[in-house]
């Protein structure tokens, strides 16, 4: 039962353009959402998060949008840079309890010069 | 402020041996999580610990796996009698009580021969 889904295994974007990564979830009890970036042989690096009481959060080049009715969130990176090439994971956690993260399968983003 | 530390970074064991993975959380973080990543998959929650207590072990296999977070020293994930299917990357994450955001270590890559 995949509660968090990233349906695009890979995405290729030209340098300077906008990268949009998508994530869908099925569990309505999720109330906190995060995006992590991961390079090979390293741990996930936290990028940005959003609480379910908001629909947008922005940090520099990164913006996360949350659509609760559609159970969908997206990460926008603009402008995209070569160093953004990595695997991006969407994760979600519930209202109470352990706050354990449920991860999507990841999307490999490649920024082309 | 050092990040989450994990050691060893790489561990090779033969079938039937024991594997011990260590995690030192970030300073001031009293919540520790362990996740496992199998090849080409997302991270899967294993266990959540606070000092001297296991809070949620719903993601741990029922046999051979155990975890602890003693009052002094690092958190330990122990795998007894390893099998080839245990080969994976094991990540530790920590967070302070004030936030739901988890910060990850670099991971331990376990290879079972």
Structure notes:
The complex is a heterodimer of chains A (113) and B (113). The mean pLDDT of chain A is 94. In chain A, strands 2, 4, 5, 9, 10 and 11 form a 6-stranded mixed β-sheet that branches. Chain A has a 5-stranded antiparallel β-sheet with strand order 1-3-8-7-6, with no helix packed on it. In chain A, β7 and β8 form a beta hairpin. Chain A has strands spanning 4-5, 10-14, 19-25, 30-38, 45-51, 56-59, 62-67, 72-77, 86-94, 102-103, 107-112. Chain A is an all-beta fold. Chain B is mainly beta and 113 residues long. Helix content of chain B is 0%, strand content 50%. Chain B has no helices and 11 strands. Chain B has strands at 5-7, 10-13, 19-24, 31-37, 43-50, 53-56, 65-68, 75-79, 88-95, 103-104, 108-112. In chain B, strands 2, 4, 5, 6, 9, 10 and 11 form a 7-stranded mixed β-sheet that branches. In chain B, strands 1-3-8-7 form a 4-stranded antiparallel β-sheet, with no helix packed on it. In chain B, β4 (31-37) and β5 form a beta hairpin. Classes of the chains: A mainly beta (113), B mainly beta (113). The interface between A and B is medium-sized, with 24 and 25 residues.
Quick structural summary:
The complex is a heterodimer of chains A (113) and B (113). Chain A has 113 residues and is mainly beta.
Helix content of chain B: under 10%
Low-pLDDT regions of chain B: none
How much of the residues of chain A is beta strand, in percent?
Answer: over 45%
Count the E strands of chain B. 11
Calculate the mean pLDDT score of chain A and round it. 94
What's the rounded overall pLDDT mean of chain B? 94
Q: What would you call the structural class of chain A?
A: mainly beta
Q: State the helicity of chain A in percent bands.
A: under 10%
Query: Span from first to last CA of chain B?
Result: 37 Å
